[in-house]
Write a structure and sequence with these properties.
253 residues, alpha/beta, eight-stranded parallel beta sheet, 43% helix, globular
Length: 253
């Protein structure tokens, strides 16, 4: 792993945990990861639990993330949440363009781009997700799909802002399925993303960019994934819902 890139392990709790359950999970996790000083730990609970989790992790080595935001500052957008609202609750990061948002809620590359720019404008750090479906991979469209999502998602994002961004690669076919890309498959796509960012920006920006892997990451496969040169962290779903399993991921050797 390139030492200049600090690993970032993020737990995406999705639509799980009541406020009390989320508080207990965060509180239970804190002592288990307190010794992890050389990596960044991020928790992304549901909107309803953000305030409770913010309180539970105050003074710890963990940061708070939201799972989505709207690209407008305020207005008549029933059911949406703004960057300022997230900042008010203590969020540092926001996940944007997760495959479930793209698949289930028809989010587009253009919408992802608008959200990324709004997050950066307001001072939130975006974790922008990209990834191909099984059909796209089997049709030989992997490079095309990833290149399109990276290029469109980062449209008009300044080079200086790229220093604040994180990209998460999620093979859609490996999310919540128990399947995972092999470390070699994941590394191949991470290297592709880094090359694309190099072409869009510069070698310096590309080398500094942290790229997470997300797709059924477990305590059993995290070390092999993190050993690859272009994999700088993990975006974790199911394994982040229990303190012991997520701590095992955070504390990878």
């Amino acid at each position: 792993m390139t030492k200049q890139r600090r690993p970032i392990i993020a737990g995406n709790w999705k639509m799980n945990k009541t406020t009390a359950e989320a508080r207990d999970l965060a509180a239970g996790l804190a002592p288990l990861v307190a010794g992890a000083k050389d990596r960044e730990i991020v928790l992304a609970p549901a909107f309803t639990a953000l305030q409770a989790v913010a309180g539970a992790i105050k003074g710890t080595n963990m940061s708070l993330a939201a799972q989505n935001l709207h690209w407008e500052e305020k207005g008549a957008y029933t059911g949406e949440i703004s960057a300022e609202m997230l900042l008010d609750l203590g969020c540092k990061y926001v996940i944007i363009g997760h495959s479930e948002r793209r698949q289930c809620f028809s989010e587009t590359d253009e919408g992802v781009n608008r959200k990324v720019k709004q997050a950066l404008k307001k001072g939130l750090l975006p974790i922008m997700c990209v990834g191909e479906t099984l059909a796209e991979r089997e049709a030989g469209r992997l490079n095309e799909v990833i290149s399109r999502q990276v290029t469109a998602g980062l449209k008009d994002v300044a080079a200086e802002d790229m220093k604040k961004a994180v990209i998460a690669y999620e093979p859609v076919w490996a999310i919540g399925t128990g399947k995972t890309a092999t470390p070699e498959q994941a590394q191949e796509v991470h290297a592709l993303i880094r090359q694309k960012v190099k072409a869009l920006y510069s070698a310096e920006i590309a080398e500094g960019l942290r790229i997470q892997y997300g797709g059924s990451v477990t305590p059993d496969n995290v070390s092999a994934l993190m050993a690859k040169p272009d994999i700088d962290g993990a975006l974790v779903g199911g394994a982040s819902l229990k303190p012991e399993s997520f701590a095992a991921l955070v504390n990878f050797k």
